[in-house]
Write a structure and sequence with these properties.
By secondary structure, this protein is mainly alpha-helical. It is built from 9 helices and no strands. The N terminus is likely disordered.
Length: about 230
């Protein structure tokens, strides 16, 4: 059967949604997987549009629901693996060299971050796959810190499957109202972004204040000689 005859009813005419719809119409499940792989590499491509749209396509019979979940999760893993290898190639030495050139930071800060990731990295990768903005970014430090690849892939697959299932099923159940998902996930993304900005601002403020604080030098005490 020609896939082009399965065009989505009421599909978006343009923009990212239209581009994703064209991929699904033309390639089926692999097209959805390709869109999500690119979304991992280029976070401005919104998963909150692509995934519900894929679920809507499944609800319309363009692809099966199982195919939608399989291919979007595979695309997530492929995109995350590419970012992981970017982290591996960048390496700790380059990370430390770059960190040393940044203002208001100390090497000890990076070392503490590395120690934290060594201890909690598995939870960070798993949960990070379900948090907007960090979904893609978490793969890079995993590569820099050389997390074991089988562990990284397993955690990425599980986290991605949970996130993808929620958004794909939402689009599947909402039908032609699938775009409502974008509103709620977009709001969550804004909240996460605000928290990140506030955290960075607080960190910078503490660093600036500590640098301006005058150092107290102790004066030597003279011993009394009887």
């Amino acid at each position: 059967m020609d896939l082009m005859t399965l065009a989505l009813p009421q599909e978006p005419a343009g923009g990212i949604a239209g581009w994703a719809a064209d991929l699904v119409d033309t390639l089926g499940g692999p097209g959805a997987g390709l869109a999500i792989a690119l979304e991992n590499l280029f976070p401005p491509l919104p998963s909150e549009v692509i995934l519900p749209l894929t679920g809507f396509a499944a609800g319309q019979g363009v692809i099966s629901l199982a195919s939608a979940l399989f291919w979007t999760t595979l695309g997530s893993v492929v995109g995350a693996a590419a970012l992981y290898w970017i982290g591996v190639l960048f390496g700790r030495e380059r990370m430390h060299a770059l960190w040393a050139k940044l203002p208001l930071v100390k090497t000890s800060d990076l070392e503490r971050t590395e120690a934290w990731f060594a201890k909690h990295g598995t939870k960070a990768v798993l949960l990070g796959r379900m948090v907007p903005i960090f979904r893609s970014l978490i793969s890079v430090p995993a590569g820099v810190e050389r997390m074991r690849l089988p562990v990284f892939l397993a955690l990425t697959t599980l986290g991605s499957l949970v996130w993808n299932s929620v958004l794909v099923l939402a689009g599947y159940w909402l039908g032609d109202q699938w775009h409502a998902v974008e509103t709620y996930v977009g709001l969550l993304s804004k909240v996460v972004l605000v928290l990140v900005v506030v955290g960075i601002a607080a960190y910078v403020a503490v660093r600036v204040r500590s640098r301006k604080r005058p150092r107290v030098t102790s004066t030597p005490r003279h011993r009394r000689v009887d």
